[in-house]
Amino acid sequence: MGTNKKKNWYDYLWLASLLYLILGFFNILFAWLGLLCFLIPLGISAVKGNKTYCNHYCGRGQLLDLLGNKLKLSRKKDIPALIRSRGFRYGFLTFFLIMFGNMLFTTYLVFSDAGSLKQAVQLLWTFKLPWHFAYHGTIAADWVAQFAFGFYSVMLTSTVLGIITMVLYKPRSWCVYCPMGTMTQQICKLKDKSS
Amino acid sequence: MTLQKNKRYAVVDETHCVACGSCMKECPKGAITIPCGITAKIDTEKCVGCGLCAKACPASVIHIEILKRGEEDGNK
Ligand code: SF4
Ligand code: SF4
Ligand code: SF4
């Protein structure tokens, strides 16, 4: 963030991103709010045909920027050419969407009583972290909670990846392969071509 | 236009730009825009070649070029 510029209200959205991660430790149902980070950028790019979300509103980008620049946690090295290649970016997006579909399917299984609720958060699609402390039952149907665990897993995993690449490369390295960033840019390109 | 000094300005590798806007936030001259969410564009008239955008770019796709005096616009 430019230190030489007047701050706008949206320059504080990193607080929302941070709060989101914290709330997930207290009550997993807050994870549903994360849908906003999917629907708003996709909506803006589809309707307006620009990346205003990435360029101004994304709290995650701001948070990584703060950690890397203000807290000086980043080595600020160039990202390997492989990661910024088209193949990697679209490959990661595809992988991400498949895992997302998988998460929706798990939710469906719980919804249709074919599977049971698993009170765990899965980190990096591999490690199951016990997360029962953030689930207090009864308020919502099991599938609602299952989706919340799944969605929080997606958000936590991407945050961890974002932090690792923030440390290794430039602060906002995650933005190079962020599935939302890739998708919104692609939508903008398609929209521009068709107009 | 004839420049007195060598002019430094930023150039974006547009095919690899991810349109994230990290550069735009850094630019002290407001020389960067991302029209239609596709790629960053530099207004070379406004750009002073400070290089802050290049430092911030997570994809490292901005570099600084130097235009030697008298080379510009072919008016010499
Ligand atoms: S690329 Fe992803 S993390 Fe970066 S600003 Fe856009 S949505 Fe946010
Ligand atoms: S070199 Fe400096 S003035 Fe030029 S576009 Fe980059 S940040 Fe702006
Ligand atoms: S920071 Fe780099 S990748 Fe991001 S918009 Fe600017 S030039 Fe493109």
Give a topology summary.
The complex is a heterodimer of chains A (195) and B (76).
Chain A: H1 13-26, H2 36-48, H3 52-57, H4 59-70, H5 86-111, E1 120-123, E2 127-130, H6 142-168, H7 174-177, H8 179-194
Antiparallel strand pairs in A: 1-2
Helix pairs in contact in A: 1-4, 2-8, 4-6, 5-6, 5-8
Chain B: E1 7-12, H1 22-26, E2 32-33, E3 41-42, H2 52-56, E4 62-67
Antiparallel strand pairs in B: 1-4, 2-3
Bound molecules: iron/sulfur cluster (SF4) (3 copies).
Summarize the biggest pleated sheet of chain B.
2 strands, antiparallel
Strand order of the largest sheet of chain B: 1-4
Q: Which second-level CATH architecture of chain B applies? A: 2-Layer Sandwich
Q: Helices and strands of chain A, in N-to-C order?
A: HHHHHEEHHH
Number of domains of chain A: 1
Rg calc of chain B: 13 Å
CATH names the topology of chain B as Alpha-Beta Plaits
Q: Please state the overall shape of chain A, judged from the principal axes of the Cα atoms.
A: globular
**What percent of the residues of chain A sit in helical stretches (DSSP H or I)?**
55-70%
The greatest inter-chain interface is formed by:
A-B, 37 and 24 residues
Structural class of chain B: alpha+beta
Shape of chain B: globular
Helix content estimate of chain B: 10-25%
| SSE succession of chain B | EHEEHE
Share in β-strands of chain B: 15-25%
Number-wise, the strands of chain A total 2
